[in-house]
Amino acid sequence: MKRSIYFDYIEEKMNTLATRINIKGKLNILNLHNHSEDFYLHLFNAIFDYNLVNLNANLQNVEAIDLIDQKNKIFIQVSATATKDKIEDSLKKDSLKKYSGYNFHFISISKEASDLRTKKYLNPHSISFNPQVDIHDTVSILNKIKSMEIDGMEIVYKLIRKELGDEIDTYKLESNLASIINVLSKEDWDINEGIDHIDKFEIDRKITINELENVRLIIDDYALHYPKVDKIYSEFNSQGKNKSSSVLGTIRKEFISNQNKEKDGDLFLKVIDAVTEKALKSKNFQPIPIDELELCINILVVDAFIRCKIFKNPENYKYATT
Description:
By secondary structure, the protein is mostly helical.
C-alpha cells in the first residue's frame, strides 16, 4: 500500500514538473534549468547511489557538463532541449577530451525522449555513451523508481516532497477552471464564429494604454475566439449559477496577486503562467498535451482581458459590437 502511495505522489510531481518546465520555457517567464540541475543531482544520487556534484557551482557554463561524479566517472547534461543535434553538439565539445574513461548521460527534463534512444550519434572523442540506457526522461526515471525497494522509494518520495510539494493531497479540490478547460480542449479552434462581434479598435486602445505591445500578437491571435468562448460560458452557466464568474474571478485573482511583482506584458504572461499552475493542481483537470493546454489558457486569459477583468480599461471602453 505504501509503495503505491509513494509512487503515485512521485509520478504526479515528476509529470507536473516536466509540464511546468515546458510551459515556462515557451513563455520565457522563468528559467528553471539551474534549479533542475540541483534537483536531478539529488534525485540521481538517491536512485542510482551516485556521488554527483554540480560542476556549474564552481565553474560557470561548463560546456556539455552540468553534473559530475568523479568516483563513478560519470558526467551528465541536464537539458530542456531534447534533440539529436543537442546531444551531438555536446559530444563534440573539446572540453570532453580531458574526461577520457567517463560515461556521458543526458537528461531530458521537459519531454519524453524515447525516439532519441533509437538514434546513432557522432561521437568524435569516443566518450562512453549508450543512447539506450544513458538518455533519461521522466518516463524512464519513473520506471526506475517503480522497481526500487520500498526503503529506497521512500527516500525518493521524501526528497520530491521536500523539493516539489507538500504531503500527499488526498483532498484536491475540483475547480470550475479545470472544468472549462476540459470543455475548451474538445473545441475546434480553427473555425472562427462571429468574429464581427468584437470591436478590434477598442481592444487596440486597451493594449495601448496598458503598454502591452510585447504581447499584442497573443491578444490578437486569441481575441477572435471571444464569441465562441461567450457561447461556451453560456452553456457552462446552465450547469450551475455563475460558473463562468468563478473562472473569470480566478483569473482576476491571479492578476491582482501578481500586479505588484510584474508589469505590462510580463504581467500578462505571468497571469497565463499562474492560471496554468492553478489548473494543473485541480482534481478534475484532465491531462492534455502541452500545446493544447497552452492554447486553452491563452484563450481564457485573453477573453478575461477583453471582458474588463484584468488590466485598466480605456475611457468608454466597449469591446463587443451589437
